[in-house]
Amino acid sequence: MNKELLERYIIGGTNEVENMMVQEWLDKDANNRVEYLKMKEIFQSYLYAMNKELLERYIVGESNEAERLIVQEWLDKDANNREAYLKMKKLWDSLPKPVEVPDVDVDKAWGDFKAMRDKRALERSDIPNKKTKVIQWNWWAAASVLILCALGFYLFDRAHRETMLLSSHDVVRKDSLPDGSVVTLNRNTELAYSSAWTSTYRNVALKQGEVFFQVHKDQQHPFVIETGKSKITVLGTSFNVRRMSNATEVIVSTGLVRVNYGNKEVLLRPEQMITIRDSDTTKAETKRVKDQFYKYYVDRELLFENTPLQRVVEVLERAYGYKIEIDHPADRKLLLTATFEQNSLTEILKVLRDTFALKIVAKDKEIHLTR
């Protein structure tokens, strides 16, 4: 077995096809497993003797599932390891946190000043003309001070405002936003919002990936998601947004969702979906949602009930990111009834193989179900 492949397998850097190769090699001979365990122990010791960055990712919650398992094994192995980790964590926790400064509306401040100025102008109509120049000068001085203060607050706020980024990397991540809304990020997803996010506005940006939103209801402050060339606005509802390379898909679970793109606007209701391409100039078609498989990463399970094998394959391609082909057309109509809870693609493919007497063949980064 290739040493480089085993090292990537240890740290969770292999793909599903490579996982199958390694697991078959491990199951083939007990000596292979002994050799693997020795290599894993040596590699972990070497890894942690030099990899401070991995520990830092673990501390801030950005390590993947395989890396977390390795760190936990390393911590349990030796009291000195845990002591070194606690010292690093204490140092990390002592670092200063970014200061949040409330928003300052410069336009509102200027509008308030003008309204006050006009009101005072009416009140001073009885004042002798010889004092006019002095009063006007005082008003302009006050205006200058007000504008400078507002501008100073604005610049201070901009300087201290930080973009907060939620990233899921190789695992599904569930988190909450400052308003209490709950977001579930699928693998390899990035969601951004301002550190100065307040109830005045609720804007987030989906940079890549897929998110299931459960938005806290607030009639006065709409929740807005910007992704690609689309803007999605809601008050309190649950829905799924998937950002692809040149398109955005929106599926509504509950409530009402408004989608704007270009000069078009579409309202979506429960069990409706729309796919908008960045190049669309005409109104995109609204469709009914045919099943609930789009929430596979939220529910953490795949529930198939007399589901055609062709549809099963489509769901697996989306869930695991692999191209899967059914070589014989007749097999596409085979019906599967099974429930998978956080199973790997390898485990699911083995069930398909045993259930329908198929063969699993990897060809040029594609998986073929054949006979």
Characterize the structure shown.
- With 371 residues, this protein is an alpha+beta fold.
- The protein has 4 domains: 3-93, no CATH class; 106-160; 163-288, Jelly Rolls (Sandwich), CATH 2.60.120; 301-370, 3-Layer(bab) Sandwich (Phage tail protein beta-alpha-beta fold), CATH 3.55.50.
- The chain is 41% helix and 27% strand.
- The protein has 11 helices and 18 strands.
- It has helices spanning 3-10, 16-28, 30-50, 52-59, 65-77, 79-93, 106-123, 132-160, 296-299, 309-320, 345-356, and strands spanning 163-167, 173-176, 182-185, 190-194, 202-214, 223-227, 230-234, 238-243, 247-254, 257-261, 264-268, 272-277, 286-288, 302-308, 323-326, 335-340, 359-363, 366-370.
- The strands form 3 sheets. Strands 1, 2, 3, 4, 5, 6, 7, 8, 9, 10, 11, 12 and 13 form a 13-stranded mixed β-sheet that branches. The chain has a 3-stranded mixed β-sheet with strand order 15-18-17. A two-stranded antiparallel ribbon has the order 14-16.
- A hairpin with a 2-residue loop joins strand 6 (223-227) and strand 7.
- Helix 7 packs antiparallel against helix 8 (132-160).
- It is flat, with a radius of gyration of 29 Å.
- The two termini are 27 Å apart.
- Residues 96-104, 129-135 and 155-160 have low confidence and may be disordered.
Write down the Rg: 29 Å
> Which stretches are low in confidence, meaning pLDDT under 50 for 5 or more residues running?
96-104, 129-135, 155-160
**Overall 3D form:** flat
CATH level 3 topology of the largest domain: Jelly Rolls
Any idea what the CATH architecture of the largest domain is?
Sandwich
Topology order in helix (H) and strand (E) letters: HHHHHHHHEEEEEEEEEEEEEHEHEEHEE
Report the end-to-end length measured between terminal Cα atoms. Answer: 27 Å
- Give the biggest beta sheet: 13 strands, mixed
Helix content: 40-55%
Number of helices: 11
Proportion of residues in extended strands? 25-35%
Name the average pLDDT: 78
Structural class designation? alpha+beta
Number of strands: 18
Tell me the count of domains: 4
* CATH class label of the largest domain: Mainly Beta
